[in-house]
Amino acid sequence: MGNNNESFLQEGLRLVELAQSRQTPLRLLGAVAIRLHCETHRHLFDAANRPITDLDFMAYVRHNLAVQQMLKEEGYAHDEFILKFYGQTRQYTPIFTSAASRWTFSS
Asked: Average pLDDT of the chain?
């Protein structure tokens, strides 16, 4: 697995642990979750040579504001393009990007 993939894995786990420390359930989805939870089939993931390009999370709607606040405190901001383009259809799934543009994910 490439170094960038490992960075995404570590950041995803860090954010989940941070949310849990705030009593906010947050779960990883997508490629990162598959990579973490399907260890016996990791060879398939690695053989695909697919770079991880984003982090996908799920949280209960009642925790939406807490998750957004946590992400802002961690240096993430809403992706303004996505908000303008998809804002009406992505009400509960805002897209955030890091200030350094290293991370992009939906919550």
From this structure: 80
- DSSP three-state, residue 60: coil
Contact 18, 65 (CB under 8 A): no
CA-to-CA distance for 99 and 46, rounded, in angstroms? 29
**Of 48, 49, 39, 100, which Cα lies nearest the Cα of 74?**
100
**Alpha-carbon distance 31 to 54, whole Å?**
8
pLDDT in tens, 32-42: 898 888 889 88
Tens of pLDDT, residues 78-88:
777 767 776 66
What φ, ψ does residue 27 adopt, rounded to 5°?
-125, 140
Amino acid, single-letter form, for residue 87: G
Residue 45, C-beta contacts closer than 8 angstroms, at least 6 positions apart: 1, 31, 34, 35, 38
